[in-house]
Amino acid sequence: MADATPSGAEAEARVVPLAARPAAEDVDLLAPEVDDPAAPDAPASVAQPADDPGPGRRPRRRERRGPSLREQRRLRTREAIVDAAAELFVERGFDHVSVMEIAQRAGVVEKTVFNHFPVKEGLVFEADPPIRAALLDAVRRRPAGESVAAAAGGFVVAAVSQLGSPAAAEGMTEMARVIRGSRTLQAREREILGTLTDTLAEQITLETRAAAGELEPWLAANAVMGLYSSLLELARDRVLAGASGPELVAMLRTRGQRGLALLQFGLAGYAKRR
């Protein structure tokens, strides 16, 4: 971790694990659009005549344009919903806030909230958290000679340790309180962690061509995700106690590296009975 050149895991440490508020800029603009009853239709764009390249000439490439007016409106609506939900969840807790109340504070109708977030838990946890793709990418891009545990575990340690930074501490503290105050969210988080574990195990199985019924891919995946879960809970404990800054980042990284060492070199010598 002390190398001058950031590792793949450190480069991906900006990925916020699981308890991230869905950000408007993360919306997939290729997803099917849904009508927003809370806002008027955007004006239709003026059709442009197709370029006539003429014989022997290539047509000019269309210029890439930013989001359409409809997409911009959709992003603004989504952001307003997320902000309203976050405020209410922090004020009163996830289980004590209705979707109707979120809609009222965001200035939209209830149907609009469900258009953007089919389930209430989606206002806290993304259905496909960014960490999934980044974790798999760290595994696929690892250099020759590096184990899956080293690559995936290194990514986990780098990502979670950044939750102790001052920039992340405030949002982390708010979300930790919200999640720990709701059994519904805790259950949903366990489901997401289970899905992430399965995804990692499937990637390991694919790479190693493990036969059906072999335990090694699942043991490795569960070990890595166990490190992730443990380190995430430790980060939540510390930020709820008021800690943040370089000292917390260093502590999380040190604890994570110790856990990673156990994964890489085995548990045979750990906690021997004396």
Overview of this protein structure:
By secondary structure, this protein is mainly α. It has a domain at 8-16 and 127-265: Orthogonal Bundle (Tetracycline Repressor, domain 2), CATH 1.10.357. It contains ten helices and no strands. The chain has helices at 8-11, 69-92, 99-106, 110-116, 130-140, 148-161, 166-180, 183-208, 216-240, 246-265. It is globular and about 60 Å long.
Q: What's this entry about, in short?
A:
The protein has ten helices and no strands. With 274 residues, the chain is mainly α.
Strand share of the residues? under 5%
**Name of the CATH class of the domain at 8-16 and 127-265:** Mainly Alpha
Mean pLDDT: 80
Give the second-level CATH assignment, the architecture of the domain at 8-16 and 127-265: Orthogonal Bundle
Number of DSSP E strands: 0
Large-scale geometry: globular
How do the strands and helices of this protein lay out in sequence?
Layout: H1 8-11, H2 69-92, H3 99-106, H4 110-116, H5 130-140, H6 148-161, H7 166-180, H8 183-208, H9 216-240, H10 246-265
Helix pairs in contact: 2-3, 3-4, 5-6, 5-8, 6-9, 6-10, 7-9, 8-9, 9-10
